[in-house]
C-alpha cells in the first residue's frame, strides 16, 4: 500500500517536472508572446483549472488515467498497486493539476514565485524531489534532433495519399490536424515532444467549437483565442468525441511511423481515453414513413415551378437525379456514391431480374471489396418508371446514369454537390433536421428490410454490411431470386401511385 509520503513524492515529481518542462520550452524556444497571446494563454490555463477542479469535485479520476499510468510506470510500480492505490494516485494528480494551472497562470502574469497550496505538494520529505529533464535532453547537447514537425508531418501525409492509405479527403483532414497541433504545441523535431504535449492538445480540442474552422467570427484567430472567446457559452457546440479522436488518430499514425524509423522513442498519443462514441444506429436517424410521406409530397415529386426552382410548387415533375436519388436510396439501401456513380450499363437484367450491378470496373469508388454486389431493383421503382428513365438515358447516348452530376470535393465524388443540394432543399421545404440526411435513407432501407423479416445475412448482403461470425464464411452469395424477394419486402408505407407511369 502506498504511504502518504510515497504519494507525496510521486505527485511532487509530477508537478515539478511539468513546471520544469514548460520552463525549458520557454528558454529553448525564446518565443516572445505578444499581449493578445499572453492573455489568451492565461485564459486557457484558467479554463483548464476550472475543468480540473470540476473533475476533482465530481471524482472523474478517468480524466487523468494516462498521466497516472505514466507516473506509476516511472516510479517502477506497474503491476504492484491495487485499485485503491491507483485511484489515490489519480486523485493526487488532479489535486496537483489544480495548483499547476494556477502556477502557469501566474507565470504568464509575470510571477514565478507561486507556492502550491495542496498539502501533498507542500509536504516536506526526507529526500528532495528530483527535477526530471525533458525526454531526450542531455547536457551540452541539443534537446532533440531531426526534421521539424511541420516538415515531417507533410512528408508523411503525402506518403499516405501516394500509397493509397488515405484518400484525398483524409489527407486534407490530416493537414488541418497537423497545422493545429503545430499552432498549439510548437514546431520542433518529433523526439522533442512529450506526452504532456499530447494531453495539452487533447484539452484544446475538447474546448474548441465544432465550427471553429468555418465560422467568420473565428477567422484569423488562434485556437486559444477562440476558446477564450467562447468559454462559458453553453450554446456553443464543441467538437465531438469522434472528431477529437480522429485528430489523435492522424497524429498517432505519424508517431508510429516515427518510432519505426527511430525518430521518436514512443508514441505519445497512445492510451488516451475518449468519450464513448454513439453507436452507428444512434448517430443518424432514419426516415420513418410519415417523414418520407412529407418528403415525397414536396415540389420535386408533386410538381415544381421550374428546373431551377425545385422547392417552389408548380406543374413540372422533372425526372432527373434530384427526383430519383432519394427514391433509389430508400428502395435499395445503397450508399449515396454507389448510386451517383452508376453507369447506364450497370442497370441490367440477369436471370429475368432487373438489377443494379455495383462494381469497380470503370474506376468507381467503393467503400471496400464487400461493396461489390448485385442489388435487384425494387418493384416500386419499376412501377413508377425507373426503367423508362434508364432507357431514355441509354437512347440519349449517356454513359452516366445521372449525367448531370459532376465530380466534386477532395476525392472527386459524384455525390458531393448533390449532398449539399439535398441539404439546401430540405431547408427550403421546411424538412431539415441535422441528423436526418441522405445517408439516413440507407438506414431506413435497412430497417424496413428487418421489419419485413428478411434474414440478417441477406440484409447484410444487400446493403454491403459485413456479416459477423462463422455465418459469414458460408453466405457469400445468394440466388438473385432470393435477393429480389428480399428487396421487395421494403415497404415504406407511402402511397406513390401518383408517380406511376
TrEMBL record:
A Gene Ontology biological process term: DNA integration
SUPFAM superfamilies: DNA breaking-rejoining enzymes
Keywords: DNA integration, DNA recombination, DNA-binding
Keyword DNA-binding: yes
Top-level division of the source organism's lineage: Bacteria
GO MF entries: DNA binding
CDD domains: INT_C_like_1
PROSITE patterns: TYR_RECOMBINASE (PS51898)
InterPro entries: DNA_brk_join_enz, Integrase-like_cat_sf, Integrase_catalytic, Tyrosine_recombinase_XerCD
Residue intervals of the Tyr recombinase domain: 282-488
Family stated for the protein in its record: Belongs to the 'phage' integrase family.
Protein name: Site-specific integrase
Amino acid at each position: 500500500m502506498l504511504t502518504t509520503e510515497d504519494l507525496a513524492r510521486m505527485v511532487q515529481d509530477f508537478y515539478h517536472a511539468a513546471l520544469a518542462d514548460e520552463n525549458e520550452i520557454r528558454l529553448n524556444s525564446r518565443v516572445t508572446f505578444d499581449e493578445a497571446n499572453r492573455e489568451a494563454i492565461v485564459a486557457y490555463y484558467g479554463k483548464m483549472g476550472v475543468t480540473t477542479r470540476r473533475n476533482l469535485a465530481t471524482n472523474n479520476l478517468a480524466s487523468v488515467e494516462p498521466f497516472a499510468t505514466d507516473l506509476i510506470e516511472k516510479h517502477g510500480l506497474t503491476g504492484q498497486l491495487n485499485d485503491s492505490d491507483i485511484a489515490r494516485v489519480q486523485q493526487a494528480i488532479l489535486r496537483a493539476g489544480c495548483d499547476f494551472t494556477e502556477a502557469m497562470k501566474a507565470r504568464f502574469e509575470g510571477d514565478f514565485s507561486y507556492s502550491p497550496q495542496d498539502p501533498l505538494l507542500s509536504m516536506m520529505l526526507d529526500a528532495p524531489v528530483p527535477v526530471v529533464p525533458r525526454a531526450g535532453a542531455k547536457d551540452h547537447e541539443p534537446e532533440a534532433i531531426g526534421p521539424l514537425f511541420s516538415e515531417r508531418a507533410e512528408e508523411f501525409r503525402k506518403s499516405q495519399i501516394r500509397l493509397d492509405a488515405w484518400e484525398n479527403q483524409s489527407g486534407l483532414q490530416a493537414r488541418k490536424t497537423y497545422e493545429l497541433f503545430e499552432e498549439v504545441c510548437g514546431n520542433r523535431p518529433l523526439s522533442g515532444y512529450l506526452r504532456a504535449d499530447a494531453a495539452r492538445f487533447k484539452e484544446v480540442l475538447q474546448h474548441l467549437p465544432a465550427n471553429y474552422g468555418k465560422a467568420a467570427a473565428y477567422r484569423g484567430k488562434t485556437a486559444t483565442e477562440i476558446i477564450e472567446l467562447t468559454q462559458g457559452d453553453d450554446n456553443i457546440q464543441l467538437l465531438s468525441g469522434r472528431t477529437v479522436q480522429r485528430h489523435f488518430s492522424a497524429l498517432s499514425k505519424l508517431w508510429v511511423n516515427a518510432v519505426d524509423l527511430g525518430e521518436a522513442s514512443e508514441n505519445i498519443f497512445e492510451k488516451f481515453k475518449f468519450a464513448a462514441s454513439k453507436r452507428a444506429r444512434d448517430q443518424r436517424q432514419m426516415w420513418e414513413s410519415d417523414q418520407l410521406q412529407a418528403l415525397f409530397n414536396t415540389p420535386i415529386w408533386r410538381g415544381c415551378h421550374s428546373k431551377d426552382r425545385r422547392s417552389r410548387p408548380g406543374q413540372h415533375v422533372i425526372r432527373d437525379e434530384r427526383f430519383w436519388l432519394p427514391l433509389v436510396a430508400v428502395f435499395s439501401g445503397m450508399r449515396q456514391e454507389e448510386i451517383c456513380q452508376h453507369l447506364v450499363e450497370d442497370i441490367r437484367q440477369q436471370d429475368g431480374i432487373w438489377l443494379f450491378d455495383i462494381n469497380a470496373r470503370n474506376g468507381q469508388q467503393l467503400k471496400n471489396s464487400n461493396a461489390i454486389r448485385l442489388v435487384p431493383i425494387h418493384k416500386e421503382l419499376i412501377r413508377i418508371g425507373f426503367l423508362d428513365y434508364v432507357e431514355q438515358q441509354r437512347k440519349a447516348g449517356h454513359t452516366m446514369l445521372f449525367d448531370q452530376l459532376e465530380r466534386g470535393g477532395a476525392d472527386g465524388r459524384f455525390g458531393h454537390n448533390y449532398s449539399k443540394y439535398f441539404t439546401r432543399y430540405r431547408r427550403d421545404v421546411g424538412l431539415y433536421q441535422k441528423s436526418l440526411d441522405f445517408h439516413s435513407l440507407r438506414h431506413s432501407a435497412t430497417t424496413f428490410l428487418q421489419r419485413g423479416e428478411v434474414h440478417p445475412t441477406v440484409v447484410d448482403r444487400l446493403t454491403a454490411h459485413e456479416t459477423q461470425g462463422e455465418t459469414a464464411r458460408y453466405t457469400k452469395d445468394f440466388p438473385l431470386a432470393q435477393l429480389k424477394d428480399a428487396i421487395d419486402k421494403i415497404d415504406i408505407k407511402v402511397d406513390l401511385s401518383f408517380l406511376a407511369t
